[in-house]
Amino acid sequence: MSTAAALLTLVLASLATYACRALGVVLSSRVSNTGAVFQWVSCVTYAMIAALTSRMIFMPSGVLANVPIWVRVTICLLALLVMVFGRANRLVLALTTGVMLVSVYAHYWL
Amino acid sequence: MPYQARLAHVFRRRQALKRGARDALGSPMLVLLAGMLAYGSVAHQQGLDVWITSLGSVFIFALPGQIVMQEMLIAGAPLYSIVLAVFVTATRFVTMSITLIPQFHRRDRGPMLYLFVHLVAMTSWAVSMRAFPTLKRAERLPYFAGFAFTVWLVAFPGTFLGYVLAEDVPRWMGYGLALINPLFFLMSFAELRAKVSLLAVFLGFVLGPITYAWDPATSLLASGFIGGTLAYFGFEHLARWSANWREARRT
Question: Would you tell me which residues 46-85 of chain A have a C-beta closer than 8 angstroms to some C-beta of chain B?
Fold first, then answer.
């Protein structure tokens, strides 16, 4: 793909993202955040983010593809356990757990 | 407003701005930096242009959208489908803005919001939602601006460094950085309390790889609409069914 085409894609993608943010400003005075439409849209959004996350874990595009799938899933589950049962700073702790485990695996076995 | 009261008002807003910036300097900035570094290094491996990649972090400022754009560019997808897919991943900003903006002071809800709203992202949204109840209404926009702008400043250098250093950092470190993105989203699901949202997440999680195998371009859209709609309507049925079941058992 040429740089010009990639640049055009970047400009349009930026505008598309900004359009969603601006739409939020426009609608913020009208939509009730307890209404049915809001609930449904939020469900669709969550499902979409989850689909993306699932793809990043099960079908990664970068270096993670070299890590066997069972290792990826086990590490994610362990990090999730830390998140669910952790107390203070559990997000940092869970992220650190996952990152350290995958780094150790890559260092010794790949 | 008397002169002294106005001075105190300005002072409080300035303090809120500083507090937001200070709150950003901890783990929120580190998570974002790691995400941008990883994104930059992956873009390098996939052979995308360094400026397209780094400017994407500044102007899109939403990693899922950037990743979608990057993957579809590499796959050679048509322009309209890339823009549509990025738009679809960005639809969460509509709901994020709708829940954030009504909490600002009435006087802060002017045209300037169209500038600040670009800084709405997963991190700034989550932190603001948690901090707003402890702040006066007039302090919320300055706090948000201070936090989100500080985090946003990391986007360009983070991505650029990730791209340039992609071949210099030890290989094992690249693996760690690449895993932070999916981990961060996974962890944010763990913080959800509404059962209907958790059901939507579960369905999206299952549908993601399936729809991707079927058609990569419309995968996110399909998973979102099918999973989200099933969760929204299915949850009501499930709730009614379980209520009926409990009723039947009691009688």
Answer: 46-64, 67, 72, 75-76, 79-80, 83-84
